[in-house]
Write a structure and sequence with these properties.
This protein is α+β, with helices and mostly antiparallel strands. It contains 5 helices and 7 strands, in the order E-H-E-E-H-E-H-E-H-E-E-H. The protein has a single domain, classed as Aminopeptidase, CATH 3.40.630.30. GO terms for molecular function: acyltransferase activity, transferring groups other than amino-acyl groups.
Length: about 170
């Protein structure tokens, strides 16, 4: 199946989105548009090419930073000793009907492309995610994310990995 990814807008039907994680469903349905209006997150949705108003998946991006002492030693040596600018991939979800079709990796690749484009204007040294489950941790680990020491569930993808594509 082919998907189109775009910023969340009023033409997209979000009420019926179900991914199997109530918190992610609720975020998209109740809070995503508020976060966009407040400028605290950008929300991107994937829609099937033949059903442009149906959400098959979504992700959010916002600005973040990571204290240098929270980085793995190998990365800490290469970066300054002040907070390192990052992009936060705050949420990523695929609808139950689209699961198993590779959409999660498509959404992650799209997020990386957008972060690379943004990094031409705003410095971004890493992408940060908070993996809420063992399955999510395995997903991010598969794509080269590194778990941050002393922060269970917080993972980081260094710029060298996402700047060249997944």
């Amino acid at each position: 199946m082919e998907f189109h990814i775009r910023a969340l807008d009023s033409e997209v039907e979000i009420a019926g989105f179900r991914c199997g994680e109530a918190a992610l469903d609720e975020y998209l349905q109740r809070y995503a548009k508020q976060d966009i209006k407040r400028g605290v997150a950008r929300v991107f949705v994937a829609t099937p090419a033949d059903q442009g108003s149906v959400v098959a998946g979504f992700y959010t991006l916002s600005a973040a930073s990571v204290a240098s002492d929270q980085l793995p030693e190998t990365l800490r040596k290469k970066l300054p000793r002040y907070p390192v600018p990052a992009a936060l991939l705050g949420r990523l979800a695929v609808s139950e009907t689209a699961q198993g079709q590779g959409l999660g990796s498509i959404l992650l690749a799209d997020a990386c492309k957008r972060v690379v484009a943004a990094s031409q204007t705003l410095a971004v040294a890493a992408i940060i995610v908070d993996a809420k489950s063992p399955a999510a941790a395995a997903f991010y680990g598969h794509f080269g994310f590194i778990e941050l020491p002393g922060q269970p569930g917080r993972w980081m993808l260094p710029r060298a990995h996402f700047a060249q594509g997944l």
